[in-house]
Amino acid sequence: MNNREVAAVFDQIADLLEIQGEQVYKVLAYRRAAQEIGSLGRSLQTIWEAGELETIPGVGKAIATKIDELLRTGKLEFAEKLAGEVPPGLVDVLKVEGVGPRKAARFWKDLGITTLADLEQAARAGKLRDMPGMGARSEERILKGIESLRRRDVGRVSIGRARPVALALLAELERMPGVRKAEMAGSLRRWRETVGDIDLLVGAADSKEVIRRFAGLPRVARVLGQGETKVSVELQDGLRAQVWVHPPERFGSALQYATGSQAHNVRLRELAQQRGLSLSEHGFKKAGGGEILCGSEEEVYRRLGLPWIPPELREDRGEIQAAQRGEVPALVTLADLTAELHAHSTWSDGQNSIEEMARAAQSLGLKALVISDHSQSLGVANGLTVERLRRQAKEIESVQRRIGGDLRLLRGTRSRSAPTERLITRTRSFGSSMSSPPRCTPRCASHGRR
Q1: In this structure, which CATH number among 1.20.120.1810, 3.30.460.10, 3.40.1440.10, 2.40.110.10 belongs to the domain 157-246?
Q2: Number of CB atoms found within 10 A of residue 21's CB
Q3: Residue 316 to residue 76: CA distance in whole angstroms
Q4: pLDDT tens, 84-109?
Q5: Omega before residue 218 within 30° of 0, cis
Q6: Which residues lie closer than 8 Å to 223 by C-beta, 6 or more apart?
Q7: Cα–Cα distance list, 55 to 58, 74, 95, 231, 324 (Å)
Q8: Residues 196, 156: contact at Cβ < 8 Å?
Q9: Distance (Å, rounded) from C-alpha 123 to C-alpha 110?
Q10: What pTM was estimated for this model as a whole?
Q11: How far is it, in rounded angstroms, from Cα 291 to Cα 285?
């Protein structure tokens, strides 16, 4: 099983436990394990084989044992037992806005609703409105929630999908009158591999006007909630976004609060309490009365006796202790990247020619680029035959001569073979030699990729 499949099992366990009314800490334990496994940058199978499962954040002995069972047998007895106790279709019912675990359980036990289709049919037939706590408006909201669910991908989305949308929204916000600052926040700013909603923070004196203009953008499909300082919307592509608006003089504390993980922020509040202060998104409050406003994040951390901690590290995994020792690690930046090891050209399913990509790689300061178009084993991607591979090799050699020796062009072939895809490691290089082989950084903090 791959990482995503194992993560999906633990996500389902969390959902089923939630429907059963299990204690919150148990549900959150499985939810966190699913999130960490799903965002791993290397194979869970490799970690398991090395006996290092418990090095994964959120994975203790109990969950490690379950992962072991899954990877050894392809199934998990605990998950199967839960699925036998709770109709699995209720997991989809739980994803409808306004339907929590208790309500889903009542729909199931009182009306026999076990699937999303059952719920929609019951709502359209007016069968929900007579239940305690329900009504005609509740039915209408559930039907709208079902329609919304169909418009969007359920669950978290990759940062590659969310970030371009966030950047476009930021550009819209920055053009609005009165906006002094605008920034991403949440897991998006922490560069998590996947994100839930797009969180954006704005510094402006007139919050109502910013919220009104944002809610009216053509990109917005519907407004989910709106207040004086916050608006939540669903976009046309199904993604959801939240915008908070704070006065510029409070922007730093608001940005820090909206960016850090919950655990990181709890640690900061504890440090504030030790200094006779309380910390919130609005700033610091003194025990004897009075406020300390922070226009920048640096001011927040400085008040706590800490250097600024990069968003990527704000997960409560030792970064605060490192900051107290003056040992905050330096992150990998774009300047550290020296090679791109997997690129497709117009020879197969890429959108740029070999020379265009080579010139772009040079402009980024890279030292090596691997052209790794599909082989004919994947016919749908215009895979290369042996003869076309030979012709491509000649073009690569020709491009290498034209661009010079500061970028080394390498060629390989991506071949599909069941049950996995592999990149054939046979590569050839052209051009002048290099004093040292190209290296690829372990992780790019600016792109969130390996």
Answers
A1: 3.30.460.10
A2: 11
A3: 30
A4: 888 878 878 888 887 877 788 888 88
A5: no
A6: 215, 231, 232, 233
A7: 9, 22, 31, 38, 24
A8: yes
A9: 14
A10: 0.55
A11: 5
